[in-house]
Amino acid sequence: MTPGKQLTGTLALAVFTAVLGSLQYGYSLGVINAPQAVIEKHYGRSLGVWSENSTEEEKFSHVGQHPAVTMYWSLSVAIFSIGGMLSSFLVGFVGDLRGRVKGMLMVNVLAIAAGLLMGLCRMWKPHIMVISGRAVMGFYCGLTSGLVPMYIGEIAPKAYRGALGTLHQLAIVVGILISQVIGLDFILGNDDMWPLLLGLSGAPAVLQSFLLPLCPESPRYLYILLGKEQEARKSLLRLKGEYDPTPDLEEMRKEKEAADKEPRVSILSLIRSSVYRQQLVVALMMHLSQQFSGINAIFYYSTAIFTRAGVGQPVYATIGVGVINTVFTLVSVALVDRAGRRTLTLVGLGGMCCCAVVMTVGLKFQSEFTWMSYVSMSAIFLFVSFFEVGPGPIPWFIVAELFSQGPRPAAIALAGCCNWTSNFIIGMTFPYIEKFLDCYVFILFAMLLLAFTVFTYLRVPETKGKTFEEIAAVFLKRQKKSVAPSPKDATELQQLKTSTDA
Hints:
By secondary structure, this protein is mainly alpha-helical. The chain has helices spanning about 10-30, 35-45, 55-60, 65-85, 90-95, 100-120, 125-155, 160-180, 195-200, 205-210, 220-225, 230-240, 245-260, 265-270, 275-290, 295-310, 315-335, 340-365, 370-390, 395-400, 410-435, 440-460, 470-480, 485-495.
């Protein structure tokens, strides 16, 4: 095996440990949905609007219809995204404060605290405890959704950077699937066990806290930010086994020299910089394409479609969607370093666009033709499959490939905030959009997907197997075509030109 292509036990341990944070993120995303009716009942009881013998039960046949319960339930769901939006700006600060490994270790305190708040929610007012726990967990997930891809991107050998980067998304979908399965009413999604179901969202952080001290720190962080060449060498040897680390250290030395010439790139200066603008637009558009593709709307709408199609237990069909999610993320892991990021994203977005059109046709005519319900179901499964092949996993790790060490933390923070904000917007507005457009709701997503496909074809470069220097050269070439750089830009461009990325 050639140097720099090693997959060692230490590297496997480091990646596995890091993606436990992603697993926790996925679990927290999915766990709140299955026991909704049970939790609403406890909210109603705590708020005094429902009791076993209350006439309120007759007034509100479903306790969830009570305005106070609806408000607190909506807040329980939405507060998670708000926490993530706020903390995503702190990813760079936390990652640089004590390092990527210690950063992940520090934020685990938040996850464990959130798990305890939700797990012990019956000890006080469940609605206050759950909302507080969800807010803290969202804050944690906003940090970990940036720290995990950053750490994996910096320790992964170039040949396996895509496959290892995709594991972040794989862990998310596995977390969602686990939450769906153990959230079934005969396991933990029932009247007695639901606090444990929510509290378990902090469990992966406990395991991760024991494993993180065994993981090497990012060599790039040690060398470029701290100037500790010998420690970076040791870290490289631990991660890649016995090989000559000189070429990797030389790349880092050049990048460190370039980074030392310029001040640290802040979020504000990254937004203002014309040099990084094209990379930033690509990074943000890829995250927007992930959220505005309609994937969350699919999960929101799938149970209703399965019910119309005559599925006796639509919850199991929804779990089937979760299984498809996981299987096709594995397909992406296998293909991303062969087919390439750009190709898989184009295939995914284009396929989703076609599925959205088919879904609309199915929804429109399923009352006239019973077999149209199965067309809608098939379109849902295919839609999810295409999403996980490219648009789902790739935006998370491509940001680390588009930017050098200097602007990378700020870029990941901005991309993360963009992702969380658009997630929140879709979550809050989709029920209203669906009510307004009815069966034509997915035509809106088809139009957005077509626009994202065209943008990807025209603007997104292939980053497979390339150093940062080669990726930067693509954007530099485009910039020269569009406008002549100013003297200030030329200085920054020279810095980019002499930087490389493992």
